[in-house]
Amino acid sequence: MRAERRHLRRHEALGALRWSAGAVALAAVTACGGIAIKPDPVLPQPLLQPLPSTVGLVLPNELRNYVHKETRWGVDWQIALGPGHVHLLRDIFKDSFSQVQEFKDLAAARAGTGLKAVFEPLIDQYSFVTDRDTGGRYDAVTIRYRINVYTPQGEKVDTLTLTGYGSALAKGMSSGAPLERATLAAMRDAAAKFLVQFPEQAAGQQLAHDEPLSVQSGLDAADNVQIEAVPIEESGPDGDAGVPTA
Question: In angstroms, rounded to a whole number, what is the distance separating the alpha carbons of residues 18 and 85?
């Protein structure tokens, strides 16, 4: 009985010590004004043949300057998603199509020449949980995207919706590193889904024949086509979520 009590007291002491250390680290983070991260992924070269079309890519200011701000457990989080997504989307479309012309807005894209379609990706929602929310186990992120698809003349053909999931094992409460890894995993997950699944969509099949999109071609497709979103489990190399590769 005494041995059991000693074991119990030791367990309680260790638990209190861990909580105290976490509270001190969290207090230090709060004192420093919160946590700011700026995820910027690097995509592996996909083993896919680009579609033969030339397309326009509109990266509006709303996307370029997207910042998610949230206070969680007394800590101010600031996740600058815009710059990393500019790099990510340039890579995705460069790998998806033979030629890509980038524009600042739809009006500029209408003046483009030789385009078969125009894409305007946007971030609809970013949400996350931290290791404190999950009992010290992992950080997890969900990013929902909306991709507007237009004709070369700027007429809307369709809207694609896409969700990326990512998680990373926690390694302490004082750093934003696990959340940054989870965010990168979610961005890579979304990229892989687009690269693999877009060619199967109606618009993708038409662009595979190097045919320009038209409003009429969009009538046969359902509005808000959803690219399949499958949650990722928290198992993978280096403690990150497994991310599908194209």
Answer: 36
Hey, is 164 helix, strand or coil? strand
**Which secondary structure element, helix H or strand E, spans residue 68, and what is its range?**
strand 67-72
Which CA distances in Å does 55 have to 82, 122, 224? Answer: 21, 17, 20
The answer to whether the beta carbons of residues 31 and 48 sit under 8 Å apart is: no
What's the pLDDT score for residue 16? 40
By CB atoms closer than 10 A (0-12, 13-18, 19+), residue 113 is exposed
For 184-226, write each residue's pLDDT tens digit: 999 999 999 999 999 999 999 999 999 999 987 655 554 555 6
Residue 132 tokens, joined? 């404190």
Q: Structure tokens of 181?
A: 């890894």
Half-sphere exposure of 10 (CA within 13 A, CB side): 6
pTM, full prediction: 0.77
N- to C-terminal Cα separation, the chain: 58
Q: Which residues of 84-110 are buried (b: 16+ CB within 10 A; e: fewer)?
A: bbbebbebbbebbbeebbbbeebeebb
Q: How many CA atoms lie within 13 A of 12 on its CB side?
A: 6
CA distance 110 to 101: 11
